[in-house]
Amino acid sequence: MPEGESVHIGWEVIDPAAVGASSTPVSVRDGEPFVRWSAAGGFMPLGRYLDERIELLRHPPERA
Known about the structure:
By secondary structure, this protein is α+β, with helices and mostly antiparallel strands. It has one helix at 46-58, and strands spanning 26-29, 32-36, 43-45. Strand 2 (32-36) and strand 3 (43-45) form a beta hairpin.
C-alpha cells in the first residue's frame, strides 16, 4: 500500500433503515445522529465528529 493511503480496518456496511438508539457505530438518539469512533469509545454528535475530522484533515498533527 502506498504511503499516506487511507486504511479502513474493521469497517462494516451500515443499513440506514436499521439505525436506531442501540445500533453501532451510528445511532440516532432523540432525532440526532451520533457516531462512535471505536468499539471502546463513547458516542458523540455527528456534527462534532465531522468538525473534528475536518480540522484534522486541514491541520494534521506534526509527523502524521
